[in-house]
Inverse folding.
């Protein structure tokens, strides 16, 4: 029985990692109706930025709260900068061209970051600096709960509430929702869509930066292709929860994490990814807009 | 069966709590030109969507020539002879005028996919007939000169006419026109009245018309239903409708005592 | 302006033709320099380049310099096929060194075979590679032997009875090793309590490890690459699995202890060679490697080095530079004093050599025992 | 009936002459690249039917290609129904078999997912592609991760080339002829406005499934040819990146333009190979970096794709008339 509890803990902590990245996907999709394929590679760049800054400051082997703060700020700064650059150079010129073109550009940017990363950072995996000591919260009767499992969950829940507050309670959030429903009309009402979209990319990328530090803390192996699989899973989680809905992203991510965990634990480890996709397909067929997504009925 | 072509039996459409259409019942006879009027938001287009299967009525059913069309998909209903135009134009924008009409004739095509590969006689012949039929229809609405132009490049009035031609191309028994005169000036509306009369003549068609232009409705409709808040408040000849107290109240609101 | 810009980026690469002159012997090498297992390709390439530079410094072969053309297959089979086809038909190499990963070697060896160009793989341990044809050789032992080594070590040396296997299902090297280990361990009366898998690129293994923990095995046999093994070791310790872990030559890299930290210490893996060996040739190789690349060579660098040396020796002995001549000379390699031990190529062109069992202790690799075929 | 085969036979003769040129003029490496180009042409044209003409967004094309590849690989190594000299007939049958199996898979995938729209359909098809890949990974009789080796080739370069040109023409003329027919207009109507099409009597679901099945059939054919050309396949060459590659070819060539897909397939297959000498000079593999940059620039400079919606014939007529 305690194994089940351990699987529960593992599943939730895995899900909360997907949540941090899924939030980035959902925000950009919510505003721009666009899948930002490069988002997971911004996450990778955040990890490498923290790696190099930690080595440069020489703090890569003395884990402390100070290190955590510094690395979080570094990663958020570099990711937001990159997010801004990508939006400004690659996506803005395509603002009103067909969706498929934007998608291909996003894939182009993603491949550019991945293979560029291999050239610049080197293809070999690097070791993420020690950020914080992982202390055991609870250990006994076959259940191990460490601080890392919990911190990631807390941060993603906090991020969810913060984003909900930002989007639904603040003036800026109202402007974001306006741009999301109709950019041209929003600009008539004095909202500058370009600035709002850039802001969305900054927040989404900063979230990816936070994700990269937290994931780096727990899984200290980073390499230029690290964003690929986790990005795909996080994106699938965002769609599962209802792309565009903030709480949907977190819910979808937790379901994704738990289902993967339970599939490996009780069914077969070789079919882990296949069954994760299987669950997604089943849900989408019965709920075509995802669990919390609002299914927009086409007005005839 | 009597000459009732289309009958709605207490059809209701509920979106969540809101009853857009509330147990509406009416009959349309073969060859008749009926009108459906009512203030904005009365549920007229919702009725059209229920008649053509885009929405499935939450209660009641629609009978076409004695057979219920409950649960049928829009394309099955179109194949049974109900054609329609749309309130806001839904032409195939990036296709030519001719292609727009040809798509409507697809349901009558007999050759299989394979024939089109081998360019068999049945394929080439059927394509020729389809094109001829489409061009004839376009001639009636004097659109044949624009056959190869993109449908989106036509002026507004002609796009409206193209939608009617496209509906006619499905060889319907009854055609539902959703505000065909919207955005047309006086002379165009007049011309439209003659065209509708002409197609009723040539194709022995029954017509159901949604329209706000009272001159047009009162001018050509033989029977009119009035809808308000999803309910039928009046039915009858144009004269009876014109001075029915209920209709005036629905449109102009209740006079302050 | 737009079309000019477009045509510019299209013609840019055409200018970069490749130069070739004839007082050099062209040797081809291909490996995964990018993609998931890029580090193996890179270290093997360093070993080969070190050997080629040494040989050229000592006057080259048959009085001619060896010109190495290295190509990247991005870890994809169809790229490997294209790379080898290009080396054989475009660069017209006399022999090819290459393919650390068995998958890539198996995909591209037939191309070399059909063009009668000798193909020497430094580190592909999957048995099917040399079955492709008589032009395909390898200078490392094969999975059946390496699996046997650890099965023997686990049951006889460590007297273990219950083993859990955790294999990388996306990697045929790992699947091959795991199957042979299971067979050999059962033959020696051992029991495989669980056989789970993961995919290269995964980062979370707690689900599998929690399942394994409930079977409380004496050891875990994890024949994957060091990139995942470091994380697995850490998560195993986090879940309270205290037993030692075991693996194959895929563990061999400095990064293993950097990622695994203390969790990796005390675990065992089979390998081609050990830096602690007293053999002067090995210490000399390590000194030269450090001088050139300032990092300690791993087994793949050593294997790359040996492969290049064996090939050069064969070309020296061969009467001419034709494919068949070089092939016969390579086949005659006997007791070649390589950095990775005495290398003799047997009838089906695999290397018959002993393997060493190593224990991980921080950065250094403690030599435990040698197990010969 | 004869008229139907006039243009295809002329085109086949043209391609054959081109093939003779390649056979004697260039070495194996160029020949192999040409064969890969032809496989990608079929892949791109078949996907154009779904993404370009019918406006549905499929990201699972590699899965169908994998099914074709593995069926042909397995059948041509295990069953020999014809004596040695008639091998090319059995090879042809196995390729068609690969296509049919992929078409069946296309039907199974198509039915449930075609209710979905846009990104959701993309995700479901991507999911099916991954499921097929993981299933292949776990099938030991197909070699699992070890892959499937020594698949017989289709004889010399020339015979492989002829096989491939035959199938390119079958694919090109099938799709071209269908698009000229009423069914073709049905596909276009689904792309333009599904609700209006349905109200005009077009069974849009059947249209989408038909497009899906036809496109996965040809993806299976492309997969079978790919298996024969590389003679060794394993699941990792059919990942979702391969599907993305196919989508890029369609978008780059021009959605709804067959000749665009062919030109884009040639460009995208040849471009990394052209860049290979660059890598020998710089010892750093910049190919993928330049490839991804080209993608971004192409989408900004030429969003409609090389040919947009036009075929090469229209482009020719437009420029010729203007200059004449």
């Amino acid at each position: 029985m305690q194994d089940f509890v351990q699987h529960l803990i593992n599943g939730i902590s895995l899900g909360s990692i997907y949540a941090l990245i899924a939030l980035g996907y959902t925000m950009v999709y919510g505003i721009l109706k666009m899948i930002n394929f490069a988002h997971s590679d911004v996450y990778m760049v955040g990890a490498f930025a923290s790696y190099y800054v930690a080595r440069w400051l020489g703090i890569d082997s003395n884990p402390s709260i100070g290190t955590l703060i510094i690395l979080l700020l570094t990663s958020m700064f570099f990711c937001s900068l990159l997010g801004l650059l990508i939006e400004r150079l690659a996506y803005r010129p395509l603002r009103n061209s067909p969706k498929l073109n934007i998608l291909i550009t996003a894939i182009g940017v993603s491949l550019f970051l991945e293979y560029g990363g291999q050239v610049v950072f080197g293809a070999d995996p690097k070791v993420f600096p020690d950020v914080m000591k992982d202390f055991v919260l609870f250990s006994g009767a076959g259940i191990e709960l460490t601080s890392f499992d919990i911190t990631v969950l807390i941060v993603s829940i906090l991020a969810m509430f913060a984003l909900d507050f930002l989007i639904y309670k603040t003036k800026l959030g109202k402007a974001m929702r306006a741009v999301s429903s109709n950019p041209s009309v929003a600009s008539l009402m004095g909202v500058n869509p370009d600035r709002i979209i850039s802001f969305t990319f900054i927040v989404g990328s900063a979230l990816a930066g936070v994700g990269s530090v937290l994931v780096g803390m727990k899984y200290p192996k980073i390499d230029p292709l690290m964003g690929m699989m986790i990005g795909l899973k996080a994106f699938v989680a965002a769609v599962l929860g209802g792309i565009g809905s903030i709480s949907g992203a977190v819910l979808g991510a937790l379901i994704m994490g738990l289902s993967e965990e339970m599939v490996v634990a009780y069914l077969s480890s070789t079919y882990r990814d296949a069954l994760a996709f299987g669950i997604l397909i089943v849900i989408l067929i019965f709920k075509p807009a995802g669990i919390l997504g609002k299914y927009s009925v086409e007005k005839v | 069966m009597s000459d009732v072509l289309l009958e709605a039996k207490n059809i209701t459409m509920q979106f969540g709590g809101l009853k857009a259409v509330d147990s509406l019942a009416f009959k349309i006879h073969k060859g008749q030109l009926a009108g459906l009027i009512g203030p904005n938001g009365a549920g007229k287009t919702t009725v059209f969507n229920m008649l053509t299967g885009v929405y499935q009525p939450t209660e009641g059913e629609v009978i076409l020539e004695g057979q219920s069309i409950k649960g049928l998909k829009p394309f099955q209903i179109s194949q049974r002879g109900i054609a329609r135009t749309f309130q806001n134009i839904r032409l195939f924008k990036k296709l030519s005028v001719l292609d727009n009409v040809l798509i409507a004739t697809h349901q009558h095509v007999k050759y299989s996919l394979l024939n089109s590969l081998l360019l068999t006689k049945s394929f080439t012949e059927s394509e020729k007939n389809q094109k001829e039929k489409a061009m004839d229809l376009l001639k009636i609405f004097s659109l044949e000169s624009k056959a190869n132009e993109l449908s989106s490049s036509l002026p507004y009035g002609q796009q409206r006419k193209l939608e009617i031609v496209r509906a006619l191309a499905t060889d319907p028994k009854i055609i539902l026109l959703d505000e065909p005169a919207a955005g047309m000036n006086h002379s165009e509306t007049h011309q439209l009245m003659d065209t509708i009369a002409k197609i009723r003549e040539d194709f022995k068609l029954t017509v159901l018309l949604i329209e706000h232009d009272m001159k047009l409705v009162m001018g050509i409709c033989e029977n009119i239903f009035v809808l308000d808040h999803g309910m039928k408040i009046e039915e009858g000849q144009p004269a009876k409708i014109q001075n029915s107290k209920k209709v005036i109240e629905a449109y102009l609101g209740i006079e302050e005592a | 302006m737009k079309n000019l810009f477009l045509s510019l980026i299209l013609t840019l690469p055409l200018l970069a033709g490749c130069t070739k002159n004839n007082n050099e012997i062209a040797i081809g090498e291909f490996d995964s320099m990018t993609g998931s297992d890029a580090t193996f390709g890179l270290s093997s390439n360093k070993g080969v380049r070190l050997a080629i530079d040494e040989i050229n410094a000592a006057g080259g072969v048959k009085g001619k310099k060896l010109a190495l053309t290295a190509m990247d297959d991005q870890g994809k089979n169809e790229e490997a096929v294209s790379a080898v086809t290009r080396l054989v038909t475009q660069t017209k190499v006399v022999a090819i060194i290459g393919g650390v990963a068995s998958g890539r070697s198996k995909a591209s060896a037939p191309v070399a075979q059909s063009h009668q160009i000798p193909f020497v793989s430094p580190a592909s341990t999957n048995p099917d590679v040399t079955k492709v044809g008589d032009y395909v050789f390898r200078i490392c032992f094969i999975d059946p032997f390496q699996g046997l080594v650890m099965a023997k070590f686990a049951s006889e040396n460590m007297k273990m009875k219950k083993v859990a296997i955790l294999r990388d299902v996306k990697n045929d090297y790992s699947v091959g090793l795991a199957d042979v280990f299971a067979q050999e361990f059962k033959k020696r009366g051992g029991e495989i309590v669980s056989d789970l898998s993961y995919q290269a690129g995964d980062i979370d293994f707690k689900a599998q490890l929690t399942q394994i923990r409930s079977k409380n095995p004496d050891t875990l046999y994890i024949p994957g690459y060091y990139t995942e093994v470091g994380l697995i070791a850490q998560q195993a310790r986090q879940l309270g699995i205290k037993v030692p872990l075991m693996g194959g030559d895929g563990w061999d890299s400095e990064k293993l202890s950097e990622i695994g930290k203390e969790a990796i210490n005390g675990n065992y893996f089979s390998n081609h060679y050990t830096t602690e060996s007293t053999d002067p040739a090995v210490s000399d190789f390590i000194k030269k490697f450090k001088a050139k690349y300032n990092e300690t060579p791993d087994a793949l660098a050593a294997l790359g080095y040996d492969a290049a040396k064996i090939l050069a020796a064969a070309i020296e002995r061969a009467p001419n530079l034709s494919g068949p001549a070089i092939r016969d000379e390579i086949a005659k390699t006997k007791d070649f004093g390589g950095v990775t031990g005495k290398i003799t190529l047997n009838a089906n062109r695999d290397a018959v050599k002993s393997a060493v069992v190593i224990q991980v202790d921080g950065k250094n690799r403690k030599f435990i025992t040698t197990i010969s075929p | 009936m004869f008229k139907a085969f006039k243009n295809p036979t002329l085109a086949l003769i043209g391609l054959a002459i081109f093939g003779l040129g390649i056979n004697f003029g260039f070495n194996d490496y160029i020949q192999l690249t040409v064969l890969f180009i032809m496989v990608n042409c079929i892949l791109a044209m078949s996907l154009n039917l779904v993404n370009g003409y019918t406006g549905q967004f499929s990201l699972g094309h590699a899965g169908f290609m994998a099914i074709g590849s593995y069926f042909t690989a397995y059948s041509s190594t295990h069953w020999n129904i014809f004596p040695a000299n008639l091998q090319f007939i059995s090879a042809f049958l196995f390729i068609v078999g690969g296509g049919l199996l992929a078409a069946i898979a296309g039907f199974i995938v198509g039915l449930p997912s075609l209710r979905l729209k846009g990104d959701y359909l993309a995700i479901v098809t991507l999911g099916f592609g991954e499921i097929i890949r993981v299933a292949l990974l776990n099938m030991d009789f197909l070699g699992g991760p070890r892959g499937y080796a020594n698949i017989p080739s289709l004889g010399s370069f020339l015979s492989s080339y002829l096989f491939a040109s035959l199938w390119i023409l079958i694919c090109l003329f099938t799709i071209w002829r269908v698009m000229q027919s009423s069914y073709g207009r049905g596909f276009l109507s689904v792309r333009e406005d599904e609700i209006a099409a349905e109200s005009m009597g077009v069974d849009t679901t059947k249209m989408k499934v038909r497009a899906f099945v036809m496109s996965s059939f040809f993806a299976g054919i492309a997969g079978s040819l790919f298996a024969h050309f590389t003679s060794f396949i394993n699941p990792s060459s059919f990942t979702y990146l391969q599907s993305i590659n196919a989508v890029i070819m369609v978008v780059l060539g021009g959605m709804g333009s067959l000749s665009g897909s062919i030109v884009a397939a040639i460009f995208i297959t040849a471009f990394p190979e052209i860049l290979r000498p660059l890598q020998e000079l710089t010892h750093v593999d910049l190919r993928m970096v330049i490839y991804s940059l080209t993608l971004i620039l192409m989408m900004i400079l030429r969003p409609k794709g090389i040919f947009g919606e036009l075929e090469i014939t229209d482009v020719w007529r437009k420029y010729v008339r203007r200059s004449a």
Observations:
- Chain A has a mean pLDDT of 86.
- Chain A touches chain C at residues 3, 6-7, 10-11, 14, 115, 118, 123-127, 134, 139, 142, 144, 146, 215, 219-221, 223, 225-226, 228-230, 260-261, 264-265, 269-270, 272-273 (CB under 8 Å).
- Residues 31-236 of chain A form one domain.
- Chain A is about 75% helix and 5% strand.
